[in-house]
Amino acid sequence: MSSSEFSYPLETLRQFAADVLRHASEQGASACETDVSESFGQSVTVRRGEVETIEYNRDKGIGVTTYLGQRRGHASTSDFSKQALRATVEAALSIARFTAPDPCAGLPDEQRLAKRTMDLELYHPWDLSVEAAIAIAQRCEQAAFAVSPMVKNSEGASVSVQQSQFVSANSLGFMGGFPTSRHYLSCSVIAGEGENMQRDDWYTTHRDPALLAAPEVIGDYAARRALSRLGARKLKTRSVPVLFEATLASGLIGSFVHAASGGALYRKSSFLLDRLGQRIFPRHVQISERPHLPGALASSPFDDDGVATSDREVVRDGVLEGYFLSTYSARKLGMQTTGNAGGCHNLIVKPGMLDFQGLLREMGRGLLITELLGQGVNYVTGDYSRGAAGYWVEGGEIRYPVQEITIAGNLKDMLQGIVAIGNDVLVRGSKQVGSILIERMKVAGA
User: Fold this and answer.
1) 134 φ, ψ (degrees, to nearest 5)
2) How distant is the alpha carbon of residue 310 from its chain centre?
3) How far is CA 377 from the centre of its chain?
4) Which residue spans within 48-117 are E strands per DSSP?
């Protein structure tokens, strides 16, 4: 796959955006914003040494949002012809004419828009042929099978190469955009036989393919994880300390982000409503947002509204100092946007002094969680209940795997009950956090 496979130069996308804004103005829109994007990629999956799937994707689109005062209309198209762009603008305006006014609708305040460009090193094309991708996936899967004859089957090893570019613009003069890339390598295998079978997986993802873990490392670790789950037992119901592995700790922080986000807050469907300035974590918890980290998976100089992003402290000494607000949700709450339209940008939970083994010793006796099932989170009350699997820990060491259990608690208590945060940080998305040890949760089992 050639790294020059974008259908249009970025400057052409800029011209499309300018044409949309000009036509919207000519048709009487009081304001307009548009997003133009295209992406392409390929994914290859190998299973038991044979090619299972080869997929190519290529997408493009233009979204147009027009305003007639405080009435808003939106339309989109994948046709980049001049006629289609004009028709899309007119469709958005037609929708706006029949929409009720919303006092919070409209473009961001002009002074909040991003004014400068910056190269955050987010584009690292991977010129990977299908043949080379197949070979990488085969090496990954072969490494898994080589660990033990107990690794009996595979759900496949996959290699994915994805590249995209976009331009966002609005009628206040903002226009910004850039190319990005994201690539990954994964492996999922099955160990055991008969009724004693377990699966597990592992993957690596980066913008720069040079930073991906070696395929042999991914396959080997996926196999060892699956093997370690053989002979899993059930637990009797009890209340014990719980350690969320780093892969799952990011989801726990994600629950906090959801509850602290504008949509949940203005709908009054969050247990963090009116908690700004209050301590919701222990004093040792510090959470920062760093949108401009070079090469990071969630870096951006501006959010989906075009508002400039900036470094900020979200939680300081356990105190909630900032929500996650877009322009619209901020207006609904009578506040200022935090540059989070579209989500958070590299949320970093400050790691503690303990590594993973140190966290196990700190816990002493309790449950290590490595897999969660279901979506049992009530953000209004904070009630939390998920199916889980993992390992029972005694004397600071893993003793045996467990399965078919449920962990339950309340997010308010869970966040306040964070005993320690590990330095085993695993970066796979917008949140960077190590394993999290929680003082006590209810574990329901046999």
Assistant:
1) -60, -45
2) 19
3) 18
4) 50-68, 71-77
The DSSP bridge partners found for residue 192 are 197
Cα dihedral 305→307→312→316 (10° resolution): -40
At residue 325, the 3 state secondary structure works out as coil
Whether 281 and 299 have beta carbons less than 8 Å apart is answered as no
Q: Is residue 432 classed as helix, strand or coil in its secondary structure?
A: strand
Structure tokens at 9: 């130069």
Comparing CA positions, the residue from 67, 65, 68 lying closest to residue 76 is 65
Q: Are 102 and 72 in contact (CB under 8 A)?
A: yes
User: Which DSSP helix (H) or strand (E) runs through 141?
Assistant: helix 130-147
Distance of alpha carbon 312 from alpha carbon 413, whole angstroms = 25
d(CA 115, CA 176): 9
Q: What's the first-to-final CA gap in the chain, in angstroms?
A: 52
Cβ atoms 38, 78 nearer than 8 A: no
What is the length of the chain? 446
**Which residue, chain included where needed, has tokens 């190519």?**
56
Are 74 and 65 a contacting pair, CB within 8 Å? yes
Neighbours of 149 (CB within 10 A): 8
pLDDT in tens, 155-170: 999 999 999 999 999 9
Contacts of 357 (CB under 8 A, 6+ apart): none
Q: Give pLDDT tens digits for 105-114.
A: 999 999 999 9
pTM above 0.70, yes or no: yes
